[in-house]
Amino acid sequence: MTLLKASIVSLLLLIGSVVDDGVKVGDKAIDFNLKNIDGSMVSLNSNSDVKGYILVFTCNTCPYSVMYEDRIIALDKMYADKGYPVLAIQPNNTEKSPGDSFELMKQRADDKGFTFPYLIDDTQETTLAYGATNTPHVFVLDKQDDSSFEVAYIGAIDNNSRNAAAADKHYVQDAINSLLANSEVSTTKTKAIGCTIKWAN
Fold it and tell me: Is the domain covering 3-196 a CATH 3.40.30.10 domain?
């Protein structure tokens, strides 16, 4: 194995280990300060009135993300007024995935009428910190008494990526409904189904 190949393998293993060590259910959510499509910087504390967030790592180009876009919009319309709005983060390296550029993010959000912030993680540090592996990948965050956020659910939006009407398990909705009712979330982790994130190296 050449030195270059060995370095690439080592880097991939490092990335894999960091992703594996992302946040777990029950952990304190990691704050960030990322650029929104309107040019503003957004963090978990940008909105003091929230009870939590539906944090979704998603993008323009992944077919699974596209299939889930209307469901993500519906989740925001369903829960934003109840204190759990959507925050979407585009995690892909834009050199590897030019269709996810900041300008095209703005265009996609406008075309679809996104009702929530659409942030770019241009360093991919937030994506690594959370351990997101796919698009879409959801982290439901619940605000605590000390104004920190706890991870309450990680995984898929529902159990049918290709057909919203055929889904019979709505993991994110169930998690938010449980939090609103001050009851335990019954399903706290599922496998995120979607495209793998396009890392810088």
Answer: yes
